[in-house]
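Thread: quick sanity check before group meeting

JM: Hey all, I'm pulling together slides for Thursday and realized we never actually wrote out the predicted structure for the chain we discussed last week. Dropping the sequence here so it's in one place. If anyone has concerns about the input, flag it before I start.
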Amino acid sequence: HLPPEVLSKIMLTVARMYYDDPGDNVRKLWEWTKLPHVCHAWRTVALSTPSFWAYIRRSRMLSIPDLVGRSKQVPLYITVGCTEPDVVSTVERMAGLLPRTRELKLDVSNSGVGTSGQGKSFPSTYAAPLLETFQLRKKGERSRTLNIVQPPFGVLPRLRYLQLDLDHIYWNNAIFSSSITTLVLNSDASV
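JM (edit): ok, ran it. Output follows.
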């Protein structure tokens, strides 16, 4: 019989482990959510540990509301997959979560669908005061560098890690702040 504090730390470690590397099997994506089903005591600990529910990795936005509700107000760690045509609408749907998001990874694939060659723009910038990690990554074998004019944020005071896979990088964008300690750029051209 483990003390609830120890069990909570173990559950957080497992949730983070699956969030960081779920493997190739999509079913493994949610393996960590089976922990509360072991017994009543484990369920009680999981439901009273909001951070356990803060690791959200999703290929679609379907189950995010359930996890967000259980995470109460703790900072969120979100990885969302979408196609290039849907990247703007995906971020717009997440706008309400951005003020409490600590890590955001957008895995964008073009699914073999070409675009007109014109860059996508976000209609507005979003506040994300807690954001420390932002990755806008291309995914898939047939994906090419993304054609997005600029990331959807203004000033990010806590941003430390930034990865952008973009066709054009505009260096005067506010996202390039002095707080960044790690910058990863994958680009065919810079402006």
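AS: nice. The chain has a mean pLDDT of 77. Strands lie at 55-58, 76-83, 101-109, 133-138, 161-165, 182-186.
JM: adding both to the slides.
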